[in-house]
Specification:
The protein has 120 residues and is of the alpha+beta class. It contains 1 helix and 7 strands. The longest helix has 27 residues.
C-alpha cells in the first residue's frame, strides 16, 4: 500500500477556504433574514349580516397546525408576523356560536386586509 503524505495548506489555499466559509456564512445570514422578514400583517374586519362590526376572537389556523389569533375591538384587529400560506379563518363572537371557517391565503409578506362576513 502506497500512501502519500498529507500536504500542509499553503497560505493561498487557506485564504480561499476562509473566503468560502465567510461567503457561506454571509449567504446563510441573508437567507435567515429573508425568512424572518417574509411575514405579513393581516388587518381583520368582522361584519354581521347587516354590515355592522362584531367583536370576538379571530383565529387563523394554518394547514401545518400553527395558529395566530386576535380579539376584535369595534369589529377590527391586526395580526403581525403571520407566515405566508393557506389558513382557515374562524371567528368566535363574544356571544353565540363560532361562525363557519373560511379558507384564506396569506401572502408571504406585506399588509393584507381580511374581511370576515357573517353568512345568513
Amino acid at each position: 500500500m502506497n500512501r502519500k503524505p498529507l500536504r500542509r495548506m499553503t497560505g493561498t489555499m487557506h485564504l480561499k477556504l476562509s473566503s468560502i466559509f465567510r461567503l457561506a456564512a454571509f449567504t446563510s445570514a441573508l437567507l435567515f433574514a429573508a425568512v424572518v422578514m417574509a411575514q405579513a400583517t393581516v388587518n381583520v374586519r368582522v361584519r354581521d349580516t347587516n354590515g355592522q362590526p362584531v367583536d370576538g376572537q379571530v383565529n387563523l389556523q394554518s394547514t401545518s397546525g400553527s395558529s395566530v389569533s386576535c380579539s376584535t375591538s369595534s369589529g377590527a384587529c391586526s395580526l403581525s408576523g403571520v407566515a405566508g400560506g393557506q389558513y382557515r379563518a374562524v371567528f368566535q363572537p363574544q356571544t353565540g356560536s363560532a361562525w363557519p371557517a373560511q379558507p384564506v391565503m396569506i401572502p408571504p409578506s406585506g399588509s393584507v386586509s381580511l374581511t370576515i362576513n357573517q353568512r345568513p
